[in-house]
Amino acid sequence: MWLPLLALTTHAESLYSYVTDRLIIRMVISTMDAEQLDTTFAALADPTRRAILARLAEGEATVTELAEPFDMSMPAISKHLKVLERAGLITRGRAAQWRPCRLEPGPLQEATHWLEQYRPFWESSFSRLDAHLREIQKGTP
Prior knowledge:
Helices cover 73% and strands 4% of the residues. It has six helices and two strands. Strands 1-2 form a two-stranded antiparallel ribbon. β1 and β2 form a beta hairpin. α1 packs antiparallel against α4 and α1 crosses α5. The chain is flat, with a radius of gyration of 25 Å. The chain starts with a helix and ends with a helix. The model has no long low-confidence stretch (mean pLDDT 83).
């Protein structure tokens, strides 16, 4: 009689341990994801950096080419590039003296995926707003 209960207890402990380990792993991954999202959105918060990313979406470019449209010093452009690089949004290669910058899509895809989770909420909100506006228009002559 005690043997099945002991087996059940051992199984429950094993299951509890498994579930606990999985939750800890998910929390760590979520924290890492949250930190990456924070870094990505912080990098995207600046219009100069967004413009640089837009240019790199067209293809590789040197630092000099990226600096051309801006009225700022090369050290200032370099700081923007370092922020983008730390966020993983760009990489800089090396080919002789040419250091091309290229766009890295990973962090942008992660940010897009995160934003997509909220799409149903916004669509529902816009649908309710649309219905409300129609009701207001019906009441107006």
